[in-house]
Amino acid sequence: MAEPVALVTGASRGIGKRLCVDLARAGYDVVCAARSSEDRPGKLPGTIEETARLVREEGRRALPVALDVRDEEAVAELADRVYAEWSRCDLLVNNAALAPPKPALEDSTKRWRTGVDVNLNGPFYMIYYFAPRMIEAGGGRVLNISSGVSQSPEFGRAGYMTSKAALEAMTRALGHDLSGKVAVNCVQLEVAVWTEGFAATLPADTPIPFEDAVIMSDAVLWFARQPLELTGKVMTIAELREMGAVRPVTPAKRGQG
């Protein structure tokens, strides 16, 4: 039997990069998808090729793919490529996200649309093109990554809050629509996690009240092991930790992401 395949968006750094490595350690071959590549690096450290090398070091296959989740045609082409080359996708993790830096009414409407496209439309495109193929193969699992900010207007970024709240609503709706065929669930990350993004933007002497990104791997792998009947759920790290699905508080160390 072929090894299971996972696809992670936002895989060039941070939580997505850590997910790819930990999924490889758990026995998955991994499609590492993100915009930042060696040909077109981003402003922050990390590329899909770097993540793919780490996956291969764990003894698993890796497919680095430059992808902008806002591009529906590119997402459709990715689905074709994954199934043509690897014949399956068992787990889809919609991790790519964008948090516009300004309050919505002080920013451009273009940035509002960009945030909605990345945080909501992108995950929808991924599910739209991958779920039917998962169904044909006998089932699959989708994990959407949300944020505690979806419940926190005081965060001051209406676009991010709105799109993440909508992502959670979409999780419940598509979880219902695909019940028994593809499990669609969501992890609401309500604690701060240390990533390359934080490392690149905070002063060197900033205290680190962040947790290790490994807690997200715990959460994703727990959902991946549940029966298809568990679907349409939005669960926080605290809830998963109370159930024993996520390890206790794990303070991050500098250099982790």
Could you write a compact summary of the structure shown?
The chain is 42% helix and 15% strand. The chain has 257 residues and is an alpha/beta fold. Helix 1 (14-25) runs parallel beside helix 2 (48-57) and helix 3 (72-85) runs parallel beside helix 4.
Give the count of structural domains: 1
| Helix/strand class | alpha/beta
Sheet with the most strands, sense and barrel status: 7 strands, parallel
CATH T-level fold name:
Rossmann fold
Major sheet: arrangement of strands? 3-2-1-4-5-6-7
**CATH homologous superfamily designation:** NAD(P)-binding Rossmann-like Domain
Please describe the structure with a list of short key phrases separated by commas or semicolons:
alpha/beta; Rossmann fold; seven-stranded parallel beta sheet; 15% strand; 8 helices; 42% helix; globular; 257 residues
Structure characterization notes:
It is a single chain. With 257 residues, the protein is an alpha/beta fold. It has a single domain (5-242), classed as 3-Layer(aba) Sandwich (Rossmann fold). 42% of the residues lie in helices and 15% in strands. It has a 7-stranded parallel β-sheet, sandwiched between helices. Helix 2 links the parallel strand 2 and strand 3 (62-66). Helix 1 packs parallel to helix 2, helix 1 (14-25) crosses helix 7 and helix 4 runs parallel beside helix 5 (158-177). The chain is globular and about 45 Å long. The model has no long low-confidence stretch (mean pLDDT 92).
Q: Helices, strands, pairings?
A:
Layout: E1 5-9, H1 14-25, E2 29-34, H2 48-57, E3 62-66, H3 72-85, E4 91-94, H4 109-136, E5 140-147, H5 158-177, E6 182-189, H6 196-201, H7 214-224, E7 234-236, H8 237-242
Parallel strand pairs: 1-2, 1-4, 2-3, 4-5, 5-6, 6-7
